[in-house]
Design the sequence.
């Protein structure tokens, strides 16, 4: 294990309910992984102790010593100061100024890098995934909220101060929809999976004839972000309208990102991306028609993320510099 | 003139009707300046020959030899490839793939740097102006259109490909206003001086009782962007509505920039900025209330640009690296 190429990094995906921990080798191959519950109600010291001890044990179980580990990366929800490794604020785990890197090093004595989870996922798709080989990429994750990450010149772009690159919180319309951030009409209020589910429930309430009812077993509590697409596929007018609107909302946000960052590629993540070309084909068409200077300037392609369930671990692991991958 | 500190740079502000040329010394002090008509209908070779000969003559008239000149910066409207000094496209001067840097060096044999004019203005405010001392700044110029520039770590941020940082072309509403870019509802369609003038004309047409009529001499052709502010100041209801709406539009764009770039400062330029605190006070209030994570994260201050009439020359000159200013 003395050859630098055989050294590993630890990737840690900190979530509100669970913590995924993985050992990642050369070319970001996943060697081993495990997960533990977050237990977010506990003091942060306990959570981080569990995280560090589990990671150290995973290394040992797989025959790695601490000296074989180049470092650990942690993707955290919320606002992170990556220069200090402090989680400034996270609504998901109710953290406030938590010195995550410093605490983790007590149990895992390696260099620790912390960044926002969507930023990590963006870099993860660049080092191994849909944006591999790209120097510049924009990434949107469509889930409960809309998270975003930007990679410029192969590095996570964070803006001038922590709290930048909140790509879910750019305003795209003026209908007056409240956003979780307190402002109205942010991209997240229209293009998150949660927003689509809310829209689908409202649509079903007004349309008892819609196939949406059958697909959710006649209980709106079963509504999910796949049902509108399935309804549209089956020819349901309500489903078609929902999907058309959703794609327009998303296209508006994506076009803004193209006009601002003009990246090589725009990568979409989150469960809703299982729709594949049903999402990307119309989005790419919209970009071709609406991107600023589309007839003469570079128009980025919209693609689906590839790291899937491992995205969190690979993204976090990608924070650790590895010479052979740079 | 052998002392590097006494060396000068040439700043050239290329506009649709005129070309301003200046010699800029230490600390971006303007030593001399002149201007020539663009004559935009001519072949680009002629325009650039005039530009270069005039700059060379200005240096000579002021006692500088070519060896005293560290380089020339040119701010051009449109989409520029700064890596090659080629103007890819400019609507204002109807240029298409013009090798500006290469042509200019025929007449002014110094290193030539070319960038978009709004990018130049942004950097100009950082090296000498409202953002002096800031590492990161966002700049919006409110004129016929809305131009934008971003400075990150003391350098112009250009995105991954030419045609990025089109900050006037982010969508802020969904009212259906056509934008000059072909897309609907861009910031430019609401927050440019032209948009305010259009709004004021429409408002006056619907309100014969408004003070707007008196202030434009009962001829809507005389409407300008100052009149709505003057009407509001005089207590006119239409003027107040126009100003309130305009500030809300602008605030929406600015909040997006804060959420994306989280810069140290946001600088506004353009004639409308003569309104000073009437613009910046409500904008700063809006940012404090609406910026993502405003209660815990850094909220940038909105200020008015300071380089005034010299902004174009100073901004262009700031493209030329000067060790003592870095």
Sequence:
């Amino acid at each position: 294990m003395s050859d630098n190429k055989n050294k590993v990094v630890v990737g840690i995906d900190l979530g509100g309910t669970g913590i995924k921990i993985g050992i990642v080798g050369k070319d970001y191959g996943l060697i081993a992984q495990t997960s533990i519950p977050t237990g977010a109600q506990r003091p942060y010291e306990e959570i981080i102790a569990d995280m560090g001890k589990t990671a150290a044990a995973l290394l040992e179980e797989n025959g790695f010593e601490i000296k074989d580990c180049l470092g650990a990366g942690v993707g955290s929800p919320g606002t992170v100061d990556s220069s200090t490794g402090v989680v400034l604020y996270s609504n998901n785990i109710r953290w406030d100024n938590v010195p995550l890197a410093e605490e983790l090093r007590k149990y895992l004595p390696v260099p620790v890098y912390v960044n926002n989870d969507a930023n990590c996922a963006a870099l993860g798709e660049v080092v191994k995934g849909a944006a591999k080989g790209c120097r510049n990429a924009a990434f949107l994750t469509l889930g409960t909220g809309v998270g975003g990450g930007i990679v410029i010149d192969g590095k996570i772009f964070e803006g001038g101060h922590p709290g930048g690159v909140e790509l879910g919180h750019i305003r795209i319309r003026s209908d007056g929809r409240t956003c979780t951030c307190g402002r109205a009409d942010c991209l997240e209020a229209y293009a998150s999976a949660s927003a689509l589910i809310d829209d689908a429930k409202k649509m079903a309430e007004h349309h008892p004839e819609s196939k949406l009812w059958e697909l959710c077993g006649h209980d709106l509590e079963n509504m999910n972000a796949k049902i509108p697409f399935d309804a549209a596929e089956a020819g349901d007018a309500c489903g078609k309208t929902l999907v058309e609107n959703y794609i327009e909302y998303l296209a508006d946000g994506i076009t803004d990102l193209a006009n601002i960052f003009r990246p090589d590629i725009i990568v979409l993540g989150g469960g809703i991306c299982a729709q594949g070309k049903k999402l990307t084909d119309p989005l790419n068409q919209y970009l071709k028609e609406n991107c600023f200077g589309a007839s003469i300037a570079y128009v980025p392609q919209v693609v689906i993320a590839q790291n899937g369930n491992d995205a969190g671990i690979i993204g976090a692991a990608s924070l650790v510099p590895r010479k052979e991958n740079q």
In short: The mean pLDDT of chain B is 95. The longest strand of chain B covers residues 30-37.
